[in-house]
Write a structure and sequence with these properties.
The chain is of the alpha+beta class. Helices cover about 30% and strands about 30% of the residues. The strands form 2 sheets. A 6-stranded antiparallel sheet has the order 1-2-6-5-4-3, with no helix packed on it. A 4-stranded antiparallel sheet has the order 7-8-9-10.
């Protein structure tokens, strides 16, 4: 912080102190000054909470370049950030767009959004690959039943469009050549389910 910023902040503090009503007790003045001091501090450092859901860690306080480069955007506010775009090495990926304002951190070699339309086509359309019963499959089936009126029958196009606005998958692969991955299902600003596939 430059000297001029320190001086300006000091002048504001002094003028506020003199502007306090004379009726305030010494304790009330002290409380006010404590709040003033607290508000001038730098923002808190980023915190990583590894206890959310399996391999997903909640990363609060990270912004901008700390998250890496935005490499893909999903529906709504969802964004996928890569800390080393173009690499196939294992590294950190972050997903943003959660209603609590915290990113979610995952480690892997490749990450991408998966669309509801593709999921519907594979599991409920003519391709006919049955869902495996993973956490993300079960959470999506419940969401689908509410929106489409049935957990098994084909959704009408309007219902699929509604699901596309509500939900999105993210797949994070452990390696660039393998099929082992972590799958997230997010909906309405929250992490709905996580599966290891």
């Amino acid at each position: 912080m430059t000297f001029s910023h320190v001086l300006a902040r000091g002048l504001v503090a002094v003028s506020l102190i003199f502007a306090l009503p004379a009726s305030l007790s010494a304790e009330e003045r002290k409380g006010f000054l404590g709040k003033l001091r607290a508000s001038s501090k730098a923002p808190a450092e980023a915190t990583i909470d590894t206890a959310e859901k399996g391999p997903v860690a909640k990363a609060c306080g990270l912004r901008g370049k700390s998250l890496g480069k935005v490499v893909e955007k999903g529906p709504g506010k969802w964004k996928l950030h890569d800390t080393a775009p173009g690499s196939t090495a294992v590294r950190d990926f972050y997903v943003t767009g959660f209603s609590d304002g915290c990113a979610r951190k995952l480690r892997g070699a490749v990450a991408m959004f998966g669309s509801v339309e593709l999921y519907e086509l594979v599991h409920y359309g003519p391709v006919g690959v049955k869902p495996t019963g993973s956490e993300t499959d079960r959470a999506y089936a419940a969401m689908r039943a509410r929106t489409c009126g049935s957990p098994q029958k084909a959704c009408k196009p309007g219902a699929v469009r509604k699901l596309t606005r509500q939900a999105v998958f993210v797949d994070v692969y452990a390696s660039a050549t393998g099929s082992r991955r972590t799958q997230l299902l997010m909906s309405r600003g929250k992490l709905a389910a996580v599966s290891q596939r």
